[in-house]
Design goal:
Layout lengths: L21 E5 L2 H5 L5 H6 L25 H14 L4 E5 L2 H4 L8 H16 L3 E5 L7 H5 L9 H15 L5 E6 L1 H9 L12 H23 L8 E7 L3 E3 L4 H16 L3 H9 L1 E6 L3 E7 L9 E5 L4 E3 L23 H10 L6 E5 L10 H17 L4 E7 L18 E3 L6 E4 L4 H9 L4 H6 L1
Parallel strand pairs: 1-2, 1-12, 2-3, 3-4, 4-5, 5-9, 6-10, 9-11, 11-12
Antiparallel strand pairs: 7-8, 13-14
Helix pairs in contact: 3-5, 7-9, 8-9, 12-13, 13-14
GO molecular function, one term: beta-glucosidase activity
Keywords: Glycosidase, Hydrolase
Family: Belongs to the glycosyl hydrolase 1 family.
Length: 450
């Protein structure tokens, strides 16, 4: 396959077998388990980037050492996922566990992933595996990570090994999760590894390399025995930013919002997906980097949409919301209309789509049901209109360490506290999702008619 499909808009069902509509939860193994040594484990235990002020990289009292430990409790959590009516389970394969030292494979970690996959199969859950979810080995980070193109072969080799080991048990693969989000957090605001602040040149270099790594890994997997049947996709954070207010300061807020949409949003990735051309712009300087894949549009079998909301900046550049909107704990509003718009825009790629993440940080659990119902209705509206959306994953199953915000952001369907006071208790607001999962048909045609 040389590139993505070219059919725009809604996609007709031309396949002989019924297309499944998958329903489930998404997790990152590191956020629930930590590891012995990775870029994020090292960063989480540091004081960077505010070391001079003595501020920890992770908000709150607890770090990743205190976690719900999916690694050792996977049977319990997979059973909980099945109990809510899931038919699929999205998770990450952790490179740092597989290859803790360059060229050294931990076969115990490989066996553990086989056990997880067998457990998913036993509970009727189709796995959706992400090869990179913000986390990689420290040896890879110290070698420059994805800022150096010469490191791409290391990621490709890891991807090939994973497919060799697990390819018979996994149909859906994602090379990367949210490249633009990781780039912005790690190179612009400095709250993720490597903790750089406003390094826009490094940010562009990293994003460019990661997109090239996707293409290289895709082609390598497809060339392997069984690779032609694998569905290899890419997952992107879909967010746009807007300015609130009027006057001169509104103009400043709009300028910031436009650049945020360009950097953190997905303008760069969308252009690359549609044309095969990567363009990275900087304020004042203009285009800093431009290249085009000689093979045209990048290869991708499916597209993962991570949609939470839109970002709104007040005139004094603080997160805000419209008068009629409800804010979440994560400083953005509940905005269901954006879900439909994201799906419609991504339909331009002409390939199947999955809502690979959507959810809400809601410590009081008084907005979760409203959010789930409103967002799911927008997905169903898109499906009814003919858009090729083949699944819905809620982020996340159990409250986890939400990167730099620590355990303060409660996204889980099940409550969990690092102090041991709560262990996997179903939240009241989660029950609306269970209702959707249990009542909706398991095939796309049935969902379209529901």
């Amino acid at each position: 396959m040389n590139g993505v499909g070219h059919q725009n808009g809604p996609v007709a069902n031309q396949e002989k077998e019924p297309i499944r509509f998958l329903k489930g939860a998404a997790i990152s193994v590191w956020q629930n388990s930590g590891d012995g040594g990775s870029n994020w484990t090292r960063f989480a235990k540091s004081l960077w980037p505010f070391r001079y002020l003595g501020v920890s990289a992770i908000r709150g009292k607890y770090n990743i050492d205190k976690c719900s430990d999916f690694w050792n409790n996977y049977e319990k959590d997979i059973k909980l996922a099945a109990a809510i009516g899931s038919t699929t389970f999205r998770f990450s394969i952790e490179w740092a566990r597989i290859e803790p030292e360059r060229g050294v494979i931990d076969m115990e970690a490989v066996r553990r992933y086989h056990q997880m996959l067998d457990c998913m199969a036993a509970h009727g859950l189709e796995p959706n595996a992400t090869l990179w979810h913000f986390v990689h080995p420290t040896w890879f980070e110290d070698a420059g990570g994805f800022t150096r193109e010469e490191n791409i072969p290391a990621f490709v080799e890891y991807s090939k090994r994973c497919f060799e080991w697990f390819g018979s048990k996994i149909r859906l693969w994602a090379t990367f999760n949210e490249p633009t989000c990781y780039m912005f957090l790690g190179w612009v605001v400095g709250i993720a590894p490597p903790g750089r602040i406003f390094d826009l040149v490094g940010a562009g270099r990293m994003l460019s390399t990661m997109l090239k790594a996707h293409v290289a890994a895709y082609r390598a997997i497809k060339a392997m025995p069984g690779g032609a049947e694998a569905q290899v996709g890419l997952v992107s954070h879909h967010i746009t930013f807007e300015a609130q207010g009027n006057g001169l300061l509104h103009g400043v807020a709009k300028l910031v919002s436009d650049w945020m949409t360009y950097w953190w949003g997905w303008d760069v990735v969308e252009h690359w997906m549609l044309t095969g051309e990567f363009v990275w712009k900087l304020p004042v300087m203009g285009v800093w980097q431009r290249w085009k894949d000689p093979d045209g549009r990048p290869p991708c079998d499916w597209w993962g949409i991570n949609y939470y909301s839109r970002g709104i900046f007040s005139w004094y550049l603080q997160p805000a919301c419209r008068e009629e909107e409800v804010m979440t704990d994560m400083y953005y509003p509940i905005y269901p209309e954006g879900m439909y718009r994201a799906i419609k825009r991504c339909s331009e790629f002409g390939i199947p789509m999955y809502i690979t993440e959507t959810g809400i940080a809601d410590a009081r659990d008084d907005r979760r049901a409203i959010m789930i119902d409103a967002y799911f209705k927008e997905v169903l509206r898109a499906v009814a209109d003919g858009h090729d959306v083949r699944g819905f994953y809620y982020w996340t199953l159990v409250d986890n360490l939400e990167w730099a915000t620590g355990y303060t952001m409660k996204f889980g369907l099940y409550a969990w506290e690092p102090d041991g006071s709560v262990d996997r208790k179903l939240k009241e607001g989660s029950k609306v999702l269970i209702r959707y999962f249990r009542t909706l048909p398991d095939d796309l045609a049935g969902v379209r008619e529901a």
